[in-house]
Amino acid sequence: MRRRFSKREVAEFYRRLSASRPIPQTELEFINPFTLLVAVVLSAQATDIGVNKATPALFDLADTPAKMAALGEERVAQLVRTIGLYRTKARNIIALSRMLIDQHGGAVPRDREALEKLPGVGRKTASVVLNVAFGEPTIAVDTHIFRVGNRTGLAPGKTPLAVEEGLEAVTPARYKHGAHHWLILHGRYVCKARKPDCPVCAVADLCRYGAKTAPAEMIAARAEAITAEPLVEAKPRRSEKPPPQPSPAGGGGRKPALKRTLPRKRGREGPTP
Ligand code: SF4
Q1: Is the pTM of this model over 0.85?
Q2: How far is the CA of 20 from the centre of ligand 1 (A)?
Q3: Poorest-confidence range of 1-10, 131-140, 248-257?
Q4: Residue ranges of the domains in the chain?
Q5: 53, 60, 124, 197: which one is catalytic?
Q6: Spelled out in words, what is the top-level CATH class assigned to the domain 7-24+139-226?
Q7: 215: burial class by Cβ within 10 Å (0-12, 13-18, 19+)?
Q8: End-to-end CA separation in angstroms for the chain
Q9: pLDDT tens digits for range 42-60
Q10: 231 C-alpha vs ligand 1 centroid, how far in Å?
């Protein structure tokens, strides 16, 4: 059984991902909360790149629910026909536009329950909208995050909801808003489905995956270069004397020795994250 992440390891995991992408943001292009919602609906089982190719023409014509409803299902379908399942998605976009007009005054609600009642909107889409449009600390689990959560051992789970709950439980509060973006981008560009790019991975020494594509020495050298501080406090050996304690008068005692989880290796530093 794989060893679970300690709190310090989780914090270090996110510190490194955040260092590599200081401004976490979606790669979907949008203008306002409504166009974000439409883009996320279109992105189901499609790539962000593919969605971004189709949406500029659509949003030029319709960037509000009223304009979208006026455009009509057939016209929307034509504009997004390069995206998979475009007919179903066009139908849902028109239906959700009408529902936003009828029930929410034409605005996108900042409410999970209301969002999930919209046609074509499930938990994942609602989480993305809440996070990106409203700044909520939600973690939407898509195929990339599901893989990263399981492969690394950060939040293993058999279903997206189980992984989401695991991530909610372990992710430090200061990283929660960006977690969705950091994890999805890590899964998309580094921890790829077919062959993870472990040689350039910033969290390789923390990851619990048993079939990494980088040798242990390379991972250790990289960890040496990018670890913020030692992750595990050394336990004193029985034969060792305990470290000197600070004197009652406040004299300078030495701090307990710390050790790394991986062996130190002198030499050139690995590439930066
Ligand atoms: S070490 Fe490899 S498997 Fe682990 S997170 Fe990095 S890329 Fe993924």
Answers
A1: no
A2: 15
A3: 248-257
A4: 7-24+139-226, 33-134
A5: 124
A6: mainly alpha
A7: exposed
A8: 29
A9: 999 999 999 999 999 999 9
A10: 18
